[in-house]
Specification:
By secondary structure, the protein is an alpha/beta fold. 38% of the residues lie in helices and 23% in strands. It has a 9-stranded mixed beta sheet with strand order 3-2-1-4-5-6-10-8-11, sandwiched between helices. A two-stranded parallel ribbon has the order 7-9. Strand 1, helix 1 and strand 2 form a beta-alpha-beta unit. Helix 1 crosses helix 6, helix 3 crosses helix 4 and helix 4 runs parallel beside helix 5.
């Protein structure tokens, strides 16, 4: 498969690209900094330069032609302010969904965060609150696209850089916990192989079920 990854230089994205490349797929990493091209190529991916905060829908759709799926793994990241939580975590996700629809790329996996539908507690730090609101808005937009996209929203718990375990808890009612970035990437790969997981919102933490089995349990069996 040809899989386009938005936010292609991120920690999850690089692991995802490596896993896809290792099994013979064609990952394409969308990046805005040309200095990152070598990092992308090192994990076996193709780099495509585009700034999601400035691009038009048409410009992005051109990068998606002939793709089998798009994975939204972009995020403003640590150290960014409230404004970029909105422009990257929310608006760029909407842009990607619009572009995927325009390019005819139906399969869309969006990496969100566990608990973003819950109210933000009073007194929450402003940047964190903006992040939660941005993720919530991006997910809400995607949920409205049932006719144009076969979307899955993946909501990992607290992310770690520990080695992957390949055993997880995955499902709508899974409680908060931690999960390795390597395992998040592995679950995304498995979701891409399971079209029956479309239109599901799935929480993810490390657990006891092998990744492929956990994803299969969330599939409605459609092909």
């Amino acid at each position: 498969m040809r899989i386009v990854i938005a936010g292609g230089h991120g920690k999850i994205a690089l692991r995802l690209a490596q896993q896809l490349s290792d099994r013979g797929d064609q990952p394409v990493a969308l990046i805005r900094n040309p200095d990152h091209v070598s990092d992308i190529e090192e994990v076996g991916a193709e780099a495509a330069l585009i700034d999601l905060e400035k691009a038009t829908v048409t410009e992005l759709a051109e990068k998606l032609m002939n793709a089998d799926a798009l994975v939204f793994a972009a995020g403003a990241g640590p150290g960014s302010g409230t404004e970029r939580k909105e422009t990257v975590d929310h608006k760029s996700a909407v842009l990607c969904a619009d572009a995927a629809s325009l390019a005819g790329v139906r399969r869309f996996v969006q990496i969100s965060a566990i608990g973003v539908d819950e109210p933000v507690p009073e007194g929450t730090e402003a940047v964190w609150a903006a992040y939660v609101e941005a993720k919530r808005a991006a997910d809400a937009d995607l949920r409205e696209r049932n006719l144009e996209l076969d979307w899955t929203i993946l909501r990992p718990g607290r992310l770690t850089d520990d080695p992957g375990t390949r055993v997880v808890d995955l499902g709508e009612g899974v409680d908060r916990g931690s999960v390795t970035r390597e395992d998040v990437a592995a679950v995304v790969v498995a979701l891409l192989d399971e079209p029956g997981t479309a239109r599901k919102v799935l929480n993810l933490v490390n657990g006891a079920t092998p990744v492929v089995e956990a994803v299969g349990e969330q599939s409605d069996g459609s092909r």
